[in-house]
TrEMBL record:
The keyword Transferase applies. Keywords: Transferase. One of its GO terms (cellular component) is cytosol. It comes from Flavobacterium urocaniciphilum. GO terms for molecular function: O-acyltransferase activity. Belongs to the transferase hexapeptide repeat family. The lineage of its organism: Bacteria, Pseudomonadati, Bacteroidota, Flavobacteriia, Flavobacteriales. This is Acetyltransferase (Isoleucine patch superfamily).
Length: 201
């Protein structure tokens, strides 16, 4: 289920007429170029950002060494608390207005000191719009879906499951993950694969 198979994407690209293929190049190049600018800004700031990955400009500006994102992922929010490490895998989709908090305070302490935890988000995770991940969550396993407006208070260690609600709870197992999807095509940024797969047998 988790093997990458781009054959459907390749067939769609190869079935296009030459004119339609050429028309598709310009917007893909433009979107890829803008995403690459954001990626390079974040890298200069100390983050590790993989190939064909999109992060917002505002996240790129605030990025630091605590941010690590894999290949072909989408992060459409800048609401990431980078006071501790956030590691995001490959083919991850994080939608708009998602909030990821990494630090809080020790409520029973006389000094109210700050406490923080790192977070690992594994491959093929989809975190939907307006979801929030609290510092008590330390890992989200491969293939997890977190529903829109959910509040996640603990780690999800089972793979390919759907959680939703406040607090987020198990809804059901996920039947499939989007392992055949060119994730960057969701934003029209698939310039490199668009060119590469055109002439592949």
């Amino acid at each position: 289920m988790n093997n990458i198979d781009y054959s459907n994407y390749k067939n769609k690209i190869q079935s296009r007429s030459t004119l339609k293929f050429l028309i598709g190049i310009l917007p893909r190049f433009y979107n890829h170029f803008l995403a690459e600018i954001n990626r390079q800004i974040a890298i200069v700031k100390g983050a590790r950002i993989g190939k064909n990955t999109y992060i917002t400009f505002s996240l790129a500006i605030k990025a630091n060494k605590n941010l690590c994102v894999g290949d072909s992922s989408i992060v459409e929010t800048s609401n990431l608390d980078l006071r501790d490490t956030i590691t995001i895998g490959n083919h991850v989709i994080i939608n708009k207005n998602v909030t990821i908090l990494r630090a809080s305070h020790e409520v029973d302490s006389l000094d109210f000191e700050t406490i923080s935890n790192p977070l690992i988000i594994n491959d093929f995770v989809w975190i939907a719009t307006n979801a929030a991940i609290l510092p008590s969550c330390k890992e989200i396993s491969k293939g997890v879906v977190l529903g829109a407006f959910s509040i996640l208070t603990k780690s999800i260690l089972d793979e390919n499951v759907i959680f939703a609600g406040n607090p987020a709870k198990f809804i059901r197992n996920r039947k499939n993950i989007y392992s055949n999807l060119v994730v960057e095509s969701l934003q029209g940024r698939d310039f490199l694969k668009y060119i590469s797969f055109r002439n592949k047998n």
